[in-house]
Amino acid sequence: MKENRYDDEEFFQKYSQMSRSQKGLSGAGEWSTLKKLLPDFAGKRVLDLGCGYGWHCIYAAEQGAASVIGVDLSDRMLSVAREKTKCPQVRYQRCAIEDIAFLPESFDVVLSSLALHYVESFEQVAQKVAGYLVRGGDFVFSVEHPVFTAYGSQDWFYSDSGEILHFPVDRYYYEGPRQAVFLGEKVTKYHKTLTTYLDGLLQAGFSIERVVEPQPPEEMLDTVNKLGIGPGGLGGTTTALAVNVNTYPTHIAGLPVAVNICCHVNRHIIREV
Fold this sequence. Notes:
Blueprint: H1 9-16, H2 19-23, H3 31-37, E1 45-49, H4 55-62, E2 67-72, H5 75-84, E3 90-94, E4 107-113, H6 122-132, E5 133-142, H7 146-149, E6 157-158, E7 164-166, E8 176-182, E9 185-191, H8 194-203, H9 220-225
Parallel strand pairs: 1-2, 1-4, 2-3, 4-5
Antiparallel strand pairs: 6-7, 8-9
């Protein structure tokens, strides 16, 4: 299924208000992690699958790429991308990711950011990309973590009173389409296990150099403090002194979630005698 919600006017308007749409790569939560995985673009031929507004294409060109092709199914996305792109070595092509067709060894680098979970068969895409890359080329991509696509709703389980209970990971091992809600609209995503992604790459002939599950960026502390919540919710410029993420061994389908922002003294009672 090649769904194209982004050419729906109302959906596209909602998307255009997102931070990543207005601020570019700096507004994309995964960028700080993805950027560290990117190769040297100098003199390289680059392909971006699901290019959207063209932010990654522009970045590659600014980093010295010899040529960049951005592929996307949405006319509206590509229209914005062409308006924003001033680099002559970048061009855009309207095409579904599943339907891309290029000559063998046409590219040195293939990118894709948060697009491949909309594609039914990752294995087929990986096989195509392997053929389009030169020997020793790089395939760098990000997808929504399978924990978040497993159940489909991509929302919490709530009690009858509306209290958050847990995040559902049911159906993790059952791959296939999921109806999720994004920007208030139903969209189809394809859930795949980590095994499918990793083995799909290996079967296509890739060697895997890095697999990263992003942690909160350092600037998140600044973001939290700018909320103005303050100690005990009383307001102020200091809400948290640090943002720490603790990791523990768990089942692959487990999702430990805990957030506790509270002053230490609020957990104690001093009784005067």
